[in-house]
Amino acid sequence: MIEIDGSTGEAGGQILRTACALSTVTKKPVHVFNIRKSRPRPGLATQHLLGIQSLTQLCNGRLEGDKLGSQEIWFCPEEIKSKDLHIKIDTAGSITLVLQTLILPALLAPSPIKIVFNGGATDTFFSPTMDYFQYVFLKILGKMGAKVEINILRRGYYPEGGAKVEVKVFPFKLKNINLTERGSLKKILAISGASELLKSKKVAERQLQGAREVLGKLKLPMEERVEYYQTQCPGSQICLIAEFENTVIGTDNLGKLGKRAEDVGKEAALELLREQKSEACLDKHSADQLLPYMALASGKSQVTVSEITNHCKTNIWVIEKFIDGKFEIKGNLIIWQPS
Fold first, then answer.
1. Per the count of CB atoms within 10 A, which of 128, 207, 237, 314 is most buried?
2. Structural domains in the chain?
3. pLDDT (tens digit, 9 = 90+) per residue, 104-120?
C-alpha cells in the first residue's frame, strides 16, 4: 500500500485527488493521512468526500475513513467499470474539483461514462470556474486525445450551490504532448456571467468593462460574451481565454459582496497579461492539473509553464509514487520521461 502524507508541500486537497485517481488507474491501494492538515478546516470537505466515494463506485473499490472532516482514508481500487455516476451535492461544493478526481480514471474505462451532478457550485472560491475548466484545461487535454463534453443545465454559486451539470467522458489512450511554442495570438475570448438576480445592476457587463479597460489599451483581438443565469443565489464570474495557434491560457475571477464588478474584470485581465508575458504554453493553474495525464501518456512529454508553483511540485511528488518515470524541471520547462 502506498503511503501519502497529505501535509507534504502545499498540503491541500490536490494531494488526495491525484493520489486516489492514480490509485484507481494503477490499481495500487493507497493510504492518505494528514489530509489538508494546514487548512483552517482540516480533513475531507464535501467535494473531496464525494470525489473519492464516486471513484469507489467507478472501480468497485473499498474505502475507509470516508466521512466529513476525516484526515485519513484507505482506498483499495478494483477494475474500472463503465457506469453512469449520479452525484448529489447538498452544499456549494466545487463541481470542477470533483471532476479533477474523476476524469482521469474515466478516460480509461471500457466505454463512455456519464456523470450527472445535482447541486454544488459551477463557480466557487478556491477552485477553477466551469468556464476555465471547459475552455482552457479541457482544450489542452484535448491535444492529448481526450474528449470530454460538458452540458451546464443550471449554474450554481456560493453559498447555496444548486447547479445541474452533465458530463460525458469518452475513453481514449492518451498521447504525449509537446507544448513549447505558443504560436501567434488568435484572439481573447472574454466570458462574463452572473445570476439573473444581478441583471438590473448590469454586473456581467461591468465585469467585462473592467477587463476591457485593461486589455483594450493593447488593441488585442477580443470576442465578448455576456451571460445571465437562473440561480438559487446571487453570484458572478468572468473568464478570459487567450487562444494561440498551439495552446490556450486563461484566468478567471469571481464576484464578491462589496467588490465592484469592474474590479473583478480588471483583476482577471491583469493576471492574464502577467501570464501572457511569460510566453509559456501553460498558465500556472493548468500546469499542475495536466501533470498526471502527461505521466500516463505514452512516451516523453514536455511543456513550458508560466510558474512552477507549490501545487506543481507537490503533484510531481505524488505522481512519482505511482508511475514509473521522472519529471525534470529546467527553468520553466517541465519534462516527463517514462522509465
1. 207
2. 2-179+282-338 (3.65.10.20), 185-277 (3.30.360.20)
3. 999 999 999 999 999 99
